[in-house]
Amino acid sequence: AKAQGRDRSAVFDQVMRETALHSLELEADLRRAIIHDEFVPHYQPIVDMTDGRVIGHEALLRWQHERRGLLAPDAFIALGEDSGLIEQVDWLMYAQVVRRLAQQPKGYLSVNVSPRHFSSADFAERLLDLCRTHGADPAQLRLEITEVALLDDAPRTLRSLRTLREHGVLAQLDDFGTGFSALSYLHRFPLSVLKIDRSFVSGLDSDQPESFALVRAILALANTLGIETIAEGVETEHQRRALLGLGCRRGQGYLFGRPAPQLVN
Ligand code: C2E
Ligand code: CA
Ligand code: CA
Ligand code: CA
């Protein structure tokens, strides 16, 4: 038993070493990817669920890795956040998205904002400058932020969001219902859209009364505050109908389109 224990800890050490090596290697790769801008935004349509009309797109980060192929954010976002590299990656994404917006100015494009950005005082100015440089209309750009972003350094975040809003950049609260849900920030921050997290939407499939009640409560709250809603992760016709029945008109999900390099008209 003792020998077996030793073996097991040797295996464990080996795994730890490989994991550490892997993340060191990935971090080096990520630094190189930033220099060569190996990021390719994919766009997923956001539709009016009554008629399928596309009203905008969410830009989703993809990394064209030279050996590993196309990587989704799950594979590297935690590393990007820990190493502080995510901000540089995001700026490369925003530059591409803003350029796309200038070329193909139909509907809006939303970008994801890492919470770290709000600790820099010039986030809003820098984003507006980027729009000016490329001739994009800031009123067609939207930000997706999570509840976590609203927790730290609130005054600075508030200032950034206000400045952006004055220039027409709307803020959408991402993954609503999964975070701290203190709710007080809903009226403290200038938020225009609330994205209902996929976990609530998937519950509508099984006709669970609790899921219906939760979505209904979220919609009532948004309504009261005059905030628009978008349902995330809509995968089935059943979910689409249920959401429309509850009064949620905008949706995003595989049912309407997967993230792809091109915009959908
Ligand atoms: P998110 O902002 O909640 O984005 C929605 C995620 O759900 C995307 O995953 C999208 O591909 C996926 N999705 C869309 N429709 C469906 C559906 O019907 N079913 C299912 N199962 N999934 C669906 P993705 O692209 O892997 O992105 C994961 C997360 O990475 C995003 O979650 C966001 O938090 C983060 N992220 C994406 N792009 C960026 C970026 O440019 N910067 C930063 N900082 N984070 C990003
Ligand atoms: Ca998002
Ligand atoms: Ca989301
Ligand atoms: Ca998410």
UniProtKB/TrEMBL annotation:
Superkingdom as given in the UniProt entry: Bacteria
**EAL domain: which residues?**
23-265
Q: Which residues cross the membrane?
A: none
- This protein is called EAL domain-containing protein
